[in-house]
Design brief:
Elements (H helix, E strand, L loop, with lengths): L8 H23 L1 H13 L8 H28 L2 H20 L13 H32 L5 H28 L4 H14 L2 H10 L7 H6 L3 H12 L1 H14 L12 H16 L2 H6 L1 H7 L4 H29 L1 H24 L5 H15 L2 H11 L6 H29 L1 H22 L8 H11 L1
Helix pairs in contact: 1-4, 1-5, 1-6, 1-8, 2-7, 3-4, 3-5, 3-19, 4-5, 4-7, 4-8, 5-6, 5-18, 5-19, 6-7, 6-15, 6-18, 10-11, 11-21, 12-18, 12-19, 12-20, 14-15, 15-16, 15-17, 16-17, 16-18, 16-20, 19-20
Length: 467
C-alpha cells in the first residue's frame, strides 16, 4: 500500500527492478559472443566467395562495440528528445531486433544456411544494432535510476545496475553452456548452436520492453519537459507527500533554464566525467574479463580448468559487486574508489612480477581475484553511480552521453591493444594497467567531489560555485 507520508518502497524497488533489466541485457549482449564466436568462425570460413580471415573474425567478434560507441554518443540526444523511459524502450527494441537478426541474418534477402560476404555484412549490422542498444542502456539505465531514487539510497540503487550487468554475463555463460551441451554433434553447433545463443536474448529483451510500459517517466525529465504536476505525482508515490513537495521545489529552482549549454558549469565537471570513464577502462578490467580463459591458459591451466577458473572469477565479481551495493551509501564514493584503485594496483604489480619471473600457478589466480574484486567493489559500479549523478539536471543528458561514449572508445582501445601489447611483454602490459590504477587513485583524491547523500539538485549548486 502506498503511504502518502512516507512513500512506497515497493513502488520504488519495482521501478528500479524493471530499469536494471536493461543492465542485464547490457551484460548479456556483450558476453553472448563468447560462446558463439568459434562456431561462427567455422560457419563463415566455409564461405565460397571470400576468405574469412582472423582479421574479419576479430571485426565480427567485436562489431557490437561499434554500436556501443554510437549508442553512447547519441544517448544524451535520445534521453532529452524521447525521454529516459522511451530511450529505454528503444534500447529494448534494438536488443530484440538484434537477437532475431543475428539468429537469422538470411531473413528475406539470402539463402538459408549459405555463408557469404553479404551475409557477413548483414550479421555484423544486426550486431551493431544490438551494440547501439547496449550503448543506450549503459547511459540511460543509471540515469533513469538516479533520477527516481531518493538521495540517501541512490548509490545503492544505481549500483544494482552494475550487479545486473555482471549477472547478465553469468546468465548468458550458462545459457551458452546449456545450448552447447544439448546439441548432438560439433557440426550442429556450427549449423544452429550459435544461432540459438543469439536468439536467447530475444526473451529478456521482449520482457524488458513489455515491463517498460508500466514504469513512469522520471520526475526530473517531467519538470524539464514542462509537466511539474505529473512529476509531483511520481515523487509523492516514491517519497511521500511532504518530501515530494520539497524535492519538486529544488528541481524547479535548478531547472529554470531548460536549455543550458554543455559548458554552462565550466569544463571541469565534463572532464571529470570523461576521466572517470577513461580510468574505469584504462585499468584493464575488460582485458581480464574478455581474455580470462586465455590468461588462465597462459598461466598453465588446461581448457576445462581455465573455464572453471573463469567461473570462479565470475562468482567473485558478483560477491564484490554486492559489497559495493551495501557500502556505497555508507562509506561514500571517494573512499571506495581509492581503496579499489589501491587493490587493483597491488594485483597488477604482483601479476607483472610473476610474469617477469615466469611463475605460474595458484598465486597468479589469487592476484587476479584481488584485482577483479577490487574493481567490482569500487570502479565497476561506482563509476556509473557518479556519471549518473554528478552532472547538473539541465546538462545531464548531454554530459552523460559524452562520458559514456568516452568509456566505450576507451574499452575498444584497451581491449584491442591487449593482444599486441602482450606479444611485446605481458609483464610490461600489466605494469601499464598498474600505472593507471595508481593515477586513478590520485585523480579521485584530488578532483572528484563526494556526492554521498547529496540530491541531484545539489550538483547544480556545487558546480555553480566552482565556476
Amino acid at each position: 500500500m502506498n503511504n502518502t507520508n512516507q512513500g512506497s518502497k515497493l513502488y520504488l524497488y519495482s521501478i528500479t527492478s524493471v530499469a536494471i533489466i536493461g543492465g542485464l541485457l547490457f551484460g548479456y549482449d556483450t558476453a553472448v559472443i563468447s560462446g558463439a564466436e568459434k562456431a561462427l568462425e567455422s560457419f563463415f570460413m566455409s564461405a565460397p566467395d571470400f576468405n574469412y580471415t582472423k582479421t574479419w573474425h576479430g571485426i565480427t567478434a567485436s562489431s557490437a562495440l561499434i554500436g556501443c560507441v554510437i549508442g553512447g554518443a547519441i544517448s544524451g540526444l535520445m534521453a532529452n528528445w524521447l525521454g529516459r523511459r522511451n530511450s529505454l524502450r528503444l534500447a529494448a527494441f534494438l536488443f530484440f531486433l538484434s537477437a532475431l537478426g543475428s539468429y537469422n541474418p538470411e531473413f528475406l534477402f539470402f539463402e538459408p544456411g549459405k555463408p557469404s560476404a553479404e551475409l557477413l555484412v548483414a550479421f555484423n549490422l544486426y550486431r551493431i544494432l544490438g551494440g547501439i542498444g547496449v550503448g543506450l542502456a549503459s547511459a540511460v539505465c543509471p540515469m533513469y535510476i538516479a533520477e527516481i531514487a531518493p538521495a540517501h539510497i541512490r548509490g545503492t540503487l544505481v549500483s544494482c545496475n552494475q550487479f545486473a550487468i555482471i549477472f547478465g554475463m553469468l546468465v548468458v555463460y550458462f545459457v551458452n553452456y546449456l545450448i552447447r551441451t544439448h546439441l548432438p554433434t560439433a557440426e550442429a553447433m556450427v549449423e544452429i548452436g550459435w544461432r540459438r545463443m543469439f536468439l536467447s536474448e530475444a526473451f529478456p529483451a521482449a520482457l524488458f520492453g513489455a515491463l517498460l510500459f508500466f514504469v513512469p517517466k522520471t520526475p526530473r525529465y517531467l519538470v524539464l519537459s514542462g509537466h511539474p504536476d505529473t512529476a509531483l505525482e511520481v515523487l509523492t508515490r516514491i517519497n511521500g507527500k511532504e518530501q515530494a513537495n520539497s524535492i519538486l521545489q529544488d528541481i524547479l529552482e535548478t531547472a529554470k533554464d531548460k536549455s543550458e549549454k554543455l559548458f554552462t558549469y565550466g569544463i571541469g565537471v565534463i572532464l571529470i566525467g570523461i576521466l572517470l570513464s577513461v580510468f574505469q577502462q584504462a585499468v584493464g578490467i575488460n582485458v581480464v574479463l574478455y581474455y580470462a580463459p586465455r590468461i588462465f591458459e597462459n598461466m598453465g591451466a588446461s581448457g576445462d580448468a581455465s573455464m572453471v577458473q573463469t567461473v570462479v572469477m565470475g562468482v567473485v565479481n558478483i560477491i564484490f559487486t554486492l559489497v559495493a551495493i551495501f557500502t556505497v551509501d555508507k562509506f561514500g564514493r571517494k573512499p571506495l574508489l581509492i581503496i579499489g584503485s589501491i587493490g587493483m594496483l597491488i594485483g597488477m604489480v604482483a601479476l607483472s612480477i610473476l610474469s617477469f619471473m615466469d611463475v605460474i600457478g595458484i598465486g597468479a589466480l589469487v592476484f587476479i581475484i584481488i584485482y577483479t574484486a577490487s574493481f567490482m567493489m569500487s570502479w565497476g559500479p561506482i563509476c556509473w553511480v557518479l556519471i549518473s549523478e554528478i552532472f547538473p539536471n539541465t546538462i545531464r543528458g548531454k554530459a552523460v552521453a559524452i562520458a559514456v561514449a568516452a568509456q566505450w572508445i576507451s574499452n575498444f582501445i584497451v581491449s584491442s591493444t591487449f593482444p599486441s601489447l602482450s606479444e611485446w611483454s605481458v609483464g610490461g602490459t600489466y605494469l601499464i594497467y598498474a600505472f593507471f590504477a595508481l593515477t586513478s587513485a590520485i585523480f579521485v583524491w584530488k578532483f572528484v567531489p563526494e556526492t554521498k547523500g547529496k540530491t541531484l539538485e545539489d550538483m547544480s549548486r556545487l558546480w555553480g560555485k566552482k565556476r
